[in-house]
Specification:
Blueprint: E1 2-7, H1 17-31, E2 37-43, H2 46-53, E3 58-65, E4 74-78, H3 97-108, E5 115-122, H4 134-153
Parallel strand pairs: 1-2, 1-3, 3-5
Antiparallel strand pairs: 4-5
């Protein structure tokens, strides 16, 4: 089973890129069904990532990044490099997908995917808004195409 999860905030311009790609992948799968592939839009809910990934063999997460790199730059990173256990807190809003990777592996053990890839797309604009910047739209198309190729290989 391949699980793909798009993360981000659609109301913060380029931060919504992961969610937008996930929505496009859901449309793609509606037209090209693959029973071994699941796609979720988890928005900013890190806890959802942990539960949605459970039982999958392979996990792909898509999100925006803000590292100061060139807008639209695409980083493909192994999940274990980004895992981070959460700081003790009573606020689940602070529980992000990087926390979900570490916690999910610890809680679910063998039921959590071993193969995790994270696609990060460098944002140009994280202000309030609903449009993606041109460079981020282009990067989103590149990531979408790469992931549809992965889906086709999982048949």
């Amino acid at each position: 089973m391949l699980t793909i999860i798009g993360c981000g905030n659609l109301n913060r311009s380029d931060d919504g890129v992961g969610v937008i790609i996930a929505q496009h992948l859901q449309q793609y799968l509606a037209e090209n069904p693959h029973p071994e592939v699941r796609v979720y839009d988890s928005g900013t809910a890190g806890m959802e990532v942990m539960f949605q990934a459970r039982g999958s063999k392979q996990l792909i997460i898509i999100d925006a990044s803000a590292t100061g790199s060139e807008p639209g730059a695409i980083f493909k990173v192994p999940g274990e490099e980004l895992e981070a256990l959460p700081e003790p807190s009573y606020n689940l809003h602070d529980f992000r997908w990087d926390n979900a990777l570490a916690a999910g592996r610890k809680i679910f053990e063998n039921e959590f995917p071993r193969e995790v890839t994270v696609y990060l797309i460098e944002a140009a604009n994280l202000d309030l808004g609903i449009e993606l910047s041109p460079a981020i739209k282009h990067a989103a198309n590149v990531v979408f195409a790469e992931i549809t190729t992965i889906i086709q290989q999982n048949i």
